[in-house]
Amino acid sequence: MTAARPWPLGVDGIAYGGDYNPEQWPREVRLEDIDLMREAGVTLVSVAIFAWATLEPREGEYDFAWLDEVMDDLAGAGIKVALATATASPPPWLTRHHPEILPLTQDGTVLGQGGRQAYAVTSPLFREYALRMTRVMAERYGDHPALALWHVDNELGCHVPHDYSEHAAVAFRGWLERRYGTIEELNAAWGTAFWSQRYDSFHEILPPRAAPTYANPTQQLDFARFSSDELLTHYRALRDVLREVTPQIPATTNLMLSSATKWMDYFSWAEDLDLIANDHYLIAAEERGQIELALAADLARGVAGGDPWILMEHSTSAVNWQPRNRAKGRGEMLRNSLSHVARGADGIMFFQWRQSKAGAEKFHSAMVPHAGRDSDVWSNTVALGRALEALAPVHGSRVLSRVAIVVDYPSWWASELDSHPTQALRYNEELLRWYTAFWDLGISVDMVPTGTDLTGYELVLAPTLYTVRDQDADRLAEAARAGAQVVITFFSGIVDENDHVRLGGYPGAFRDLLGVRTEEFYPLLEGETLHLDDGTRADLWSEKTHLEGADAVRSWADGPLHGWPAVTRNPTGEGAAWYVAARPTADGLEALLTEIVAAAGVEPAVPGLHRDVEAVRRFAEDGTTYLFVLNHSDRDQVVQVSGREMLTGTDVEGAVTVHAGSAAVLQES
What we know:
669 residues; alpha/beta; TIM Barrel; Immunoglobulin-like; 3 domains
C-alpha cells in the first residue's frame, strides 16, 4: 500500500502550513513570521502565488531580492516551500500592453484587469509570457534548499472555466479536428441535420456563444470537454518547463474538488499531477457542512487513485466571499482538518498564513489573524500543529472502502443542459443526497471515475450517469455479475458520449442489466411530492417503468403512475442491479439504502454511532489501523474502541469519551 506518487521533498509526517504572501509585509513582520511558524509547527508554505507584478514590476525587469531573502529565511528555519510559478494573475503592464489576452464571456463581455486570473488560457501570447516567467522562477530557485514542490499557477479555471474569445474559437476548432478527424464525423456526432446546422468546414465553427435560442447540445458538451482540456494543457505547458529545468522537484496545482466545482474533469487531470492537491471551503449556510467536506475529501482521494494527497487550502475560520461569512465554532478547525486527514490527506494547509490588511481577502481568516497571538484562532493554529505532529505515523496509510460511487463530470455537464424533462435536476445535489445517506449509516466510500475496475467492491452506486459509453456501462454490469449490489439512479444511461439518445426505451445503456424498460418520464412539478408504497415520499422525478425481469421493491402509491414500480431489483450473476426511478426524500432514501447495504454485507467502521459522529479508518502497510472519530454533535459521545489515543497519548481499553465538538484518533494494533 506504499504511495506511488512523489511527495514534497524533505517533508515528513503530516505537512502543515499555508499560503504565505510575504510581499504584502515589511521585513520586521517577515522575521516575526518565522518565529511564529516555528511556534505553530509549520513545515510547508506556498509562496509567490500572486507575486508576478512584484517580481516583474516592468516587462523584463526583475526584483528577486525580497524573495531570495524569504527563501533563505525559511530554509534557515527548516520550513519547506511549495514555490509558485507566479503566473496566476498577470501584472497590469501585461494587460495594458496586450489587452487581447483578456478573456471573453459568453455574451461578449471582456473581463478586465483589477481582480485576478485576467487572462484567456487559450491566448498564445499569454502562454508565452507565462512560460517565460515559469522558466525564470525555475532557473533561479531550482537548487534552493527550501524548495520542496512546484505550485503551478493557482486554482486553474476558478473564475474563468470557459473563455469565448477568438483565441478560444481557434483552439476549439483545433480540438474538434483532433477529436473527429473530418467535418463529416463532427456533423454526425453533433446531429447538425437538426435546425440547418450542418458545417462545411471546421473554420465555420464557433464556441457556443449567446444565441437566439438553445445552442446545439453536443456543441455545448464538447465545449465543456475542450475547456477542461485546455486548462489542463496550460498546466502541462508550465509543468513541462519545470520538469526540464528541475526534474527532481515534484509539481502540482491546487484543484477545487467539491460538490460545487463543475467544469474541470479532474479525473482526466490526475496522471499529469505528481501529487494531488485540493482546496476546500465550507459553506456557512449548510447545516451539516461536514458531510460535503467529507465528500470533497473522498473525491480528492479518488482523483489521487487512493494515494495520500495534500489539502492545499481551507480556512481557519470565516471566509470573505459568501453572503454571510460566519466564524467557525468550537473545535471546528481541528475537526475539519482531521476529517481531511481521516480520508487520506497527508498535508493540511490554509489560506493563508497571515491575514491581509488590504485587498479583497482582508476579511478572510488566516492562521495569524488580525487579532494576533492573543486570539482563539492563533491558539487553534498552535494546537492543530501539535495534533498533526502527533499523527505523523499516519502518513502513507490509506483508506480502504467496500463501497464505490461512480462520479462522471461529462454526465454532470450534459445532464444539466437545457431542453430536458426537468430543469430542476442538479447532478451534484443527487451525488450529495446519496453520499449523505451513506454518511448517516456510517459507511465510507471511494469516489471513482467511469471505466474503473470495480472488482472487490461490494456495493457500487452510479447516480445520474446520464451519458455513458458502452464499455463503461459494461463495467457496472461486470461488477453486478461478480457479486456487487449495483445501484443506478434515474436519468442514467440515456445518451451515448455524443449526447444521442439510446433508442428502444430508457434507461438505455442499462436496460438489460436492470431488467426494466421505461417508456416515458413523468417529472414532478415544483413542490409536488408523491407517496411510495412503504409510506415514504418522493419528489422531482417519476417514470413509467415496465418490469422485464426485475422485481418491484417500491411502487407508486398515488399520482398518475399509481401501482407502477418506482424502485426495482434484478438478480444478476452473483449480485444484483437496483434501479431507483424516483427521488425518495431523506427518510425514504436512508431506509432504501439500509436494505441495499444489508444485501451487500457492508458494515460501518464503528456500529451504533450517533449520526453526527464521523468514524473513518486508515490502514498502514504493516497492518496498523488508525481510527478517526470526530464528534460533530453538541453532546459527549461514548465510542466502543480500544487502542492508543494519539492526540493525548493515552491508552484506551473498551471505550473512549469523545467530547462535544472534539476528536479522537486511535492507533489500533
